[in-house]
Input
Amino acid sequence: MLFNSFEFIFVFLPVTLVVYFLLNKRKLTKAATAWLVFASLFFYSWWNVKYLALIVGSIIFNFAIGTALAKIAKSDGTEWSKKSVLIFGLVANVLLLGYYKYADFFIGNINTLVGLQLTFQKIILPLGISFFTFTQIAYIVDAYAGKAREYDLLNYALFVTFFPHLLAGPIIHHKEMMPQFASMRNKVLNYRNLSRALFLFFIGLSKKIIIADSISPIANAGFDASAQLTFLDAWVTSLSYTFQIYFDFSAYTDIALAASLMFNIRLPFNFNSPYKATDITDFWRRWHMTLSRFLRDYVYIPLGGNRLGSFRTYFNLMATFLVGGLWHGAGWTFVLWGFLHGAATVVHRVWTKLEIDLPRFLAWFITINFINITWVFFRARTWEDALRILRAMTGMHGMELSSRFERLGINFGSLVFMHVNKNIFYVLALLMLIAALVKNSNDLSETFKPNWKNASAIIIIAFYTLLSLHNVTEFLYFNF
Output
């Protein structure tokens, strides 16, 4: 089920919310938890019910691993037996993710390298598998370290399946979520949280429908015709995708945090104006913040972090970013994207040691252009498509804006129509100003006060957004 669908907004969310708080009001807290788990599994299986068994099986397996780790620690079992259980759990999770996400990628590479003709599996990627797998990997590692304990399967199922974060994050930790679900205070409807959540929800929905979905036809047209792009075409294409993925992911994060806040549960921030970053390290502190946290805590630090000298630090950074790139998709373009960000992070580390400061605007300009260029590899279907677009961006295929872009338009909602050949550059400049200068949703939400002025703003945003809700599209991060 999509956050930007009528059935979610007008049926699923209000019904789930009302029943949950009614059950809690009658002191039926266990029933309320069970209801929220049932609703979350229904939410997940709305797309394809056959994958319901997959997520349920994953939950039961990882709960058993976590329980076994706790029992070994309680009984003073050997470190060897404890580590064996952890390794078994990690391998099983990685194999599950590897089969569903990377089987055809590996088959294709084996066929190419060895000359075999293995049959492709053509597996449809289950929604959210990367996220609920990483969430549970974090749980069993924390259980091994004694940082997490859960002896109630229903509570554990709620931790994994809670629908606001299930499909595209944030990647959460048991210790930051379960105390919130256990708090009796959070089981009572909080109208202040509800008003803030509605504000954040419709801010996010407007980003998705009015901005991200409106700019996507431009990006799609360019990437679908990479061989014919001119200089201006290529820059319009790359920048359009740069803003599409920015506002699309920002929208998802806003809506996820808002939906959770309606239940008085605070998810960790996952997006903090990343296009304001003045270096690549700053970008990764702001973009997909919980993924960055996961990769730091469960890949970079276990590899040795920065404790084993400069060379090993740079190696660990590269390895971490390669894992991050491959996590996003089964393709060499994603691996290269991760490699480029890893290389940029290494260069930034070296540059920092030289203690040379660039003017803030120049540092931002270099960073945003690097991000824009690397998004080309992230979005392109093939290596050849990415190289064609990059060549066009250097002016190798002519300079003018081609007729294919002149025929397209940006339809911002249902009320405003702008012709690309006259306004696309103004639109891209406006989106850059919004991303680089405007206060972000987190800040707006934290300072939000329920009053008539803000209530009017919510109503206007909601009315405009819902009028524009015609063609429901998936969020980009559902593909990862």
